[in-house]
Structure of Copper chaperone NosL:
Amino acid sequence: MKRWSLVLMVAMSLVILAACGQKKYEPVAINEDVDICVVCNMQVKDDAFATQLTTKDGKNYKFDDIGCMNEWKKSNGTEQIGMDYVRDYNDKSWVEFSKASYVYDASLRTPMAYGVISFKDKAAAEAFVKEQALGTVLTAGELASHEWKQNKDMMNMDMQSGEGHMEEHSSEEGTHSEEKDM
């Protein structure tokens, strides 16, 4: 009897130690008053385009567009990421990046004109494509080889309407259309 008690205690101890060893990363709320994208320095709005990641050492980074999060990953690597999250386009719930489905189309308006939006499941992404009659459904794995290009025409339109990212438009390409108007 004592033997089984000892075995049971050791087994329970191992389960407790295993559970304590796993670090859990949760998404944090967006505060529009102070949160800015760590890549483009634009305000992170509490909307369907917000994304975030937490590093294994507990630092949280927020982005206004999934393309900015991709830029951060290219510059910093992915091995230090504890968890990354995107928002469901329909209900703004947080979804683990690897579990979400994505729709890409260059004509989709996103804060930094990358044209990628996220959904909590493939069915929702497919419904969006069918309803809008545009876009391609992608997985997180397929985004790894996606050609992350900004729609410069959309960026220039946003700039003329007073929206968009100023630094992005300070290049020769972004200012020549304004010079023609003068």
